[in-house]
Amino acid sequence: MAKADGHILRVQGLKTYFPIRRGVFSRIRGWVRAVDGVDLDIPRGQTVGLVGESGCGKTTLGRTLLRLIPATAGTAWFEDELIFSANRRRMRQLRRQMQIIFQDPVGSLNPRMTVQTIVGEPLKVHGLAHGRALRQRVVNLLEQVGLSPGYLNRYPHEFSGGQRQRIGIARALALEPKFIICDEPVSALDVSIQSQILNLLADLQDALGLSYLFIAHNLAVVEHFCGEVAVMYLGQIVERAGSEDLYRNPVHPYTKTLLSAVPIPDPRTKTACQAPVGDVSDTSGPFTGCPFHPRCSLAQDQCRQECPQLREIGPGHFVACWRTE
Amino acid sequence: MNDLLQIRGLCTEFRTEDGLVRAVDGVSWQVNPGRTLGIVGESGCGKSVSALSVMGLIPKPSGEIVGGQVWFKGQDLLKLTERQIREIRGNEIAMIFQEPMTSLNPVFTVGNQIVEAIKLHQKLRTRDAWDLAVESLQRVGVPSAAERVYAYPHQLSGGMRQRVMIAMALSCHPAVLIADEPTTALDVTIQAQILELLRRLQAGERMALVLITHDLAVIAQIAHTVAVMYASRIVEYTSVEALFDQPLHPYTQGLFRSLPRLGQKKRRLDAIGGTVPNPLAFPSGCKFHPRCPLGCDDKRCQSVEPNLRLIRPGHVLACFKAAGYEDSPPCDIPTQAPTEVSNG
Amino acid sequence: GGDDQDQASGKMVRYLSLGAKVRGMDPMDIGDTTSSSVASQIFESLYQYHYLKRPYELIPCLAEDFPTGEDQLTYTFKLRPGVVFADDPCFTATQGKGRQLVAADFIYAWKRIADVKNISKNWWIFEDHIVGLDEFRDYTGRLKAGENVDYMRPVEGLQAPDDFTLVVTLKRPWPQILYLLAHLPTAPVAREAVQYYGKSIHNHPVGTGPYMLKDWKRGNKIVMVRNPRFRQEFYPVEGSPGDREAGLLEDAGKVLPFVDEARWQVVEEDQPRWLIFMRGQLDASGIPKDFYNRAIDPSRQLRSEMKDKGIRLQIFRDPSTYWYGFNMEDPVVGTNKPLRQAMSMAINRPEYVEIFTNNRAEVAQGVIPPLFKEYDPEVINPNCQYNPERARELLKEAVEVHGGPLPTITISTPGTDTLSRQMGEYVTLAMDNIGLKVKIDYMDWPSFQDRIKTKSSQVFQMGWVADYPDPENFMQLFYSKNVSPGPNNFNYRNQAFDTLYEKAKAMPDSNERRRIYHQMENIIRDDCPAIFLVHGVAFVLHYNWLKNYKPHVFGYGLIKYQRIDVAARQKSVGR
Amino acid sequence: MVSYIIRRLLYAIPTILGVLLITFILFNLIPGDPSYDIAGKSASAETIAEIRRELGFDKPRFLDTEALSQGRIAAAFDSQFFNHFRNTLTLNFPRSLTSHEPIWDEIKSRAPASLTLAAPMFIGLIATSIAIALVVAFARGSWVDTILVFICVVGMSIPMLSYILFGQHYLAYELGWFPILGYESGMQAFKYIALPCLLGIASGLGSYVRFYRTVMLDEMRSDYVRTAFAKGLSSPRVLFKHVLKNAMIPIITTLVLSIPFLFLGSLLLERFFSIPGMGSYFLDAFNSRDFPVINAMVFTTSLLYVLGQLVTDICYALVDPRISLR
Amino acid sequence: MTEAALTSDIAVGKGRSLWADAWRRLLSRKLVVASLIVIAVFVMVALGVYAGLIARDWSEPVGPRYQRPSLEHGFGTDFLGRSVWRKTLYGAKISLTVAFLASLISICIGLPLGAIAGYFKGWIDELIVWLFTTVNSIPYIILILAFAFVLQGKTLFGYPLRGISVVYLVIGLTSWVGLCRLIRGEVLKHRDRDYVMAARAYGCSRSRIILGHVIPNVAHLVIINFSLRFVSFIHAEVILSFLGLGVKGEPSWGVMIDDARQELYRGCWWQLAAATLAIGLLCLALNIVGDALRDALDPKLRQGLE
Ligand SMILES: Nc1ncnc2c1ncn2[C@@H]1O[C@H](COP(=O)(O)OP(=O)(O)OP(=O)(O)O)[C@@H](O)[C@H]1O
Ligand SMILES: Nc1ncnc2c1ncn2[C@@H]1O[C@H](COP(=O)(O)OP(=O)(O)OP(=O)(O)O)[C@@H](O)[C@H]1O
Ligand SMILES: [Mg+2]
Ligand SMILES: [Mg+2]
């Protein structure tokens, strides 16, 4: 496999490490393996969900794909184009086609810019529109995400959370990208607003043929929104499958735990949480074996010594676990 | 008043530079030993403020409780002196907060902070207090608690910190525990652990629990009674089963509809339109009417605010559109205890 | 603490203040009045001023008598026998006992001044006067770093035929020599001390005077105690008219000194100095400009509150003159006499005196202060009269002379302190008044010096305090051979003046010489190379427990004459 | 902790070298030649030359290229630049140009006086302002708060000179509560230090209290304060235990920054109260262009500052457990 | 598909920036408005002096020397019989010029250095941090004196440095450190904010990010910082005047206090009083506005309403 193979995005062996500096001379004493060998394909026009608990490297993966964080190793194709080796110029081109929506609707908008500037800036930076045309484009974009053009000259702090997230989406859409990384776009929103945004994203996908990498930790949201789901644990993808497949038939113990931990909105069925022991372990220390083994009830010697690879156990269903052999 | 903790018509206001914010507007609820009251509602609807009002922790001078009563074991907490209320606070009514990251003092060890609470309310020697602290940490499932008492908050993970908070709150065996979004900042797996823990502890000690959250699923898992708040007011108040079986208020209904549920795959969710109102400029009449799918055009909804009525036994509601609302008697709190549900 | 003990032991302590810091106490290096006033209690020179007699008069000090000599070129000094240096550890040969003073000590001290390596400020005293000394200086200058100066190297003009005889041979007549030999820098220094203390000699004065240094905390205080081995000296038995009435002769013939201990407190600011004086923590004090009205009433009398406190006022003239000098080589002011005159007439001197000195100065008509007998009280210098109308007329002439509108004139002022600034403001105002724009350029002393020495100033503010009672001291400032970097900062050149100066310089004091001085001064008055402003008048306050207090403008080592009425002080301030 | 301290110490090295560089640049740019001042009334050319030689101004600026080309390495580095670094770093200061005292001796003899003034002043200032800030923070929003803050702002608007003039005249002279001026070492010192100390504290109080109040109020908005109250702690206890210790973190950072500013206060106080400290020494040196002294003072005060910073960093680590981990 | 209808009735404020918002908050407090008026008056006076409309004739005597304040002479007269009132007015020019230009210089140095250090991190950051720790470790007053010393009498671009130009240059050149430190800290915070990430994600160049995104977000700090820093600049002018390094040939408040120091004992208190009052009033006003501005722009304080 040398190219994206018809996928909009193909990632292979992606690693992103952050150095840990300690001691008198701030020497590098170790690495935080935030993303540690991820393989991922995102089909054109589809949504791939990425779930996992806090700190498992979801955000880092997303940002690395946009080269906002330098990758340590691995390759990624965006439509037959290598992302990590593109030069500056080419990268600017690529960035017109890949965009990101952030989790925090407050932090991701520059508080000192008007909506018009925020949404118009990408166009300006790429010299795509000027003056009246720019304004018209911005108005169109705002309408597209359901905001009235009357808001053009307002500042982010004058909007509610949901509206701010819409502005962020409008900004991402400005360059007419083909692929958008949605980094927990609804986690910070109120319950009643959350579905508005999800619907909007779905509508946009239908209308514009976008592909999404949808990062979240709320499994219910992901199931609802994504065709395919990847479960991440400590920088590695431990299970990947079509969403129905995954939810009905989770294989990896971590996926099972995760699913069982989701509270069920029904007072009559209490969740029988297979409470995983302990917290997510530290990624900085040297460890061997399966990343999940310290918390896994099924762990055996092999799990502690060797790191399992993703294997296809069913059509489109990949798992990295020795116990599924 | 034979209830353990009951609040009636609580009103709390904040003076801000942009005007007066009524964060809690005539809220009433009650909770009894061994029972859990869940309070749901979206951000800014006054959940935290009502809890803080009970604790007497409203930031002064900008905030003020302007009306209502808080009955605890037969006395009105709002009429007590600061000294008397301190006796109760942390001792008989304890509270844990939303942010496990910042709610612990970063410059003292966790043991120190727990011991402080213990020594304040129990006449114990320092040594014994430390032993008790270790014990309470063990109780909430902190591994190697004897060493962790000497840890600083930053040396613990978020779930660990929240457990420390709970241990601290439970160290004096309070009669009522108010948990303000104890799991919002945590991961699903950790959240499950914490909820499990709360449920266990509550059953063990017959403690009354007030759980504040905006996650209906959490409520379903743990609460007996639910109060749904919208824009500073309670709009629906009933037992958890009643609520989940048949939500009556259009806001509650909307919430349920927009809730993505595992296993129900729909391309589009039903969303409640519009946004949460600004507390500085609440809409007139029913505060939900601009977003209400039922009757934005109704004159009465737009001008008169519906009060709570006992629409059926154990079910209190504030909505003109609900069937039978007109004929029901006004009521703040369901007088009839909601049906018991066996608790796992 | 210390005060109480003194009281118990009845010790007689004199309290003084120091406004500026004492740089060091090596006579060779002392060039400022503050250091001189302190070090003079320790060091003595060949001659000294009579304490009481006015006009000022020299009397022998370490010399036995006035010198003998046939011509004006050779002076033979006989030393007073029995003078010893104060005891000091530097006299290792005698286990710290001070040895006798000999003529060679003078020669040694003077050679030190000549030694380039020592960077003495006082070389001007001897420069080009003594046979062979300039050559000695050249010799020291030629030495490489690390080579030691040979002080045994003979200097022809300085000979000591025996221990008590000092023969000085001059290159040309130098009538002022005795005044300079009353100067502190010419005091003898013990070679042992210099060798023993090395560079720290500045902190370890070893002299023959009435006092010895006991304690010196820089920036804080200096304490001196009586030298037990001080030679026999007696309080003068005669004085000027009025001295007897003033009680200044009560101690006539008594052995000096009286005071057991002298203590200087460093006080840099006016306010605290005045306050401690008013508390009686100082025996005497000048009057800071702004406290004048508190002390003195409009009739120049001490206010009664002050009198009631037992304070006395002494008024006396300073040998000083202050001026704004013109750089005569400046193309604008140097060639434009009407301009200079106009500027001179623009200043209302009586007003100036009032504002800046509270009338503690006299309006100048020329360069020689009234203190000198050469001062001619008859002369009224029209250029020194305030006459704005005439000044404006002259300014018109000046414009013609200049050949166009006058540029802004820059006045360089040495000093950035409050007083300099206020004077600057005053002068600007005065010149403005006659329609002349001036700009004041405030600079620190080194920059100012730099500017003067390189002849790059236009007008500069300056003053001169005479070192000895001979107006030659002032006249040299206008001598053409002394132009910058010499003392003639005006760069004034006048043939007639030079001739007269050379003539007078070699003349001993006489009526003839006085006449020549008058002529010279008239030339200067007419040429107007400077705006002469004022001559200083000093007001000094002292408590009545300070006895035998008579101000002296040239002499410094005067504490030995003074006495404290300890009982009176105790009664008055309780200590 | 040890590695933390070592790292802090190592950080000080470039700072000190930087100070040396700055002083070199400054004092080689100074216009006018100090030689004239030293030479006195009638400076002759040879005297000036001699002074320049003594000051080392005759040496080449950076490198003696001539010596270098001749291969005399040691001589090549005998330049103003390298001598400056070498002499200053080894504290081998020359003698003062005016007093001819070894500078280091002088600094050693004056530092105690400065410290006797500055230390109590500093500690007093910090202690009083923290105390007042706590009171103000406790009474926030009430009229006590408003009035105290107003007084603080008024207090910080009045120039220090006005404080000194007033204090010396009224408190010392008119009322006679303090000696007007002077200094003695030992226990006696406290008698003389009292008034200047008091004035220093009074003049600094305004800005300190105001700043600390902001810090305290910031801290009081933190979540952990709410937790502490929820435990049932009383306000004073929360304030003095929880808030104070956290507030110490920003306070400590600003402490070291304010040390150099103290110097300014001491400068005027030393001058008016005739305290033989470093401030008056510096001022004298400054007025007489005594470069070696100025240079030495800049260097030693910077050294003190760097040391102060080190102490602060350590205090910082002691107060804030999150630091030592780094 | 659009949901414009849903958003039409949302209670959002009128279109105004954070600044406009802060401004409105400021104006809602009487004390702040009064302070703003005071500052405005001072600025107008200073501009008036520059334009030659106010106190042009400050140097002319208006009466006898050392007159007490009276109806005729306002604040009294000084040692040359000049009006203290006029000098006080004129002093506004010096103080404000010094404070303003010193601020400007210090901003010109501190802001870019701080922004660059904070944004680029790495060795550039370390270099700049080294620079400001070094400068900072030399006691402020010593640095000021040394600079004053060096600059006095020099020329800069053919413009001779003396008096006021030295004062503001010196203060500016020595006071950038605090600002630089502050800006660096803030930029460090902002550079990792999501909105900067977003800008990078759509291809913004680094200079555009720094100039267009980061700096506008820290700029308000500069203003708050300087509204409070002004005070210390004015005080610095007083000290420099006392040390003889201040303004000369023109009346400034520092100069007036320096004069007054000695005149007090004549019983002439009015010059000191006038200057202290002027400084006090201006500083008080600046402080109040600075504090209020800080509160108004502090996102923390706004949070309750978001
Ligand atoms: N700039 C960085 N430097 C060092 N470590 C980092 C950095 N950014 C992230 N990390 C670490 O990398 C790991 C993965 O972080 P990341 O933010 O990608 O997690 P996440 O899955 O997005 O978590 P969340 O659900 O909380 O957003 C974490 O352990 C985090 O501490
Ligand atoms: N200190 C305060 N000053 C002013 N207004 C306040 C303050 N605290 C709370 N409020 C206001 O009171 C209202 C209710 O706030 P509260 O914190 O109770 O909401 P909440 O339901 O707990 O929301 P969340 O789910 O975000 O915690 C909000 O509109 C808020 O703006
Ligand atoms: Mg993330
Ligand atoms: Mg809340």
Describe this structure in words.
The complex is a heteropentamer of chains A (325), B (344), C (575), D (326) and E (306). Chain A has 325 residues and is of the alpha/beta class. Chain A has helices at residues 58-65, 88-97, 115-125, 131-144, 161-173, 191-208, 219-225, 243-248, 253-261, 301-305; strands spanning 7-22, 27-43, 47-51, 73-78, 81-82, 98-101, 179-183, 211-215, 228-233, 236-242, 311-314, 317-319. Chain A contains ten helices and twelve strands. In chain A, strand 11 and strand 12 form a beta hairpin. The longest helix of chain A has 18 residues, at 191-208. The mean pLDDT of chain A is 85. Chain C is of the alpha+beta class and 575 residues long. Chain C has helices at residues 2-9, 33-39, 103-114, 123-126, 133-142, 177-180, 191-197, 270-278, 292-295, 304-308, 337-346, 349-357, 388-402, 418-433, 445-453, 472-475, 495-505, 511-527, 566-573, and strands at residues 13-18, 47-49, 58-60, 74-78, 158-159, 165-169, 211-217, 221-226, 261-266, 284-286, 311-326, 361-363, 409-414, 438-443, 459-465, 530-543, 546-547, 563-564. In chain C, helix 11 packs antiparallel against helix 13 (388-402) and helix 17 (495-505) packs antiparallel against helix 18. The termini of chain C are close together. The relative contact order of chain C is 0.14. The model of chain C has no long low-confidence stretch (mean pLDDT 88). Chain D folds into two domains: 2-89, no CATH class; 113-319, MetI-like (MetI-like fold, Orthogonal Bundle), CATH 1.10.3720. Helices cover 77% and strands 0% of the residues of chain D. In chain D, helix 1 runs antiparallel to helix 14 (291-319) and helix 13 packs antiparallel against helix 14. The mean pLDDT of chain D is 80. Chain E is mostly helical and 306 residues long. Chain E has one domain: MetI-like (MetI-like fold, Orthogonal Bundle), CATH 1.10.3720.10. Helix content of chain E is 71%, strand content 1%. The radius of gyration of chain E is 23 Å and the shape is globular. Chains in contact: A-B, A-D, A-E, B-D, B-E, C-D, C-E, D-E. At the A-B interface, helix 5, helix 6, helix 7, helix 8 and helix 9 of A face helix 6, helix 7, helix 8, helix 9 and helix 10 of B. The complex binds adenosine-5'-triphosphate (2 copies) and magnesium ion (2 copies).
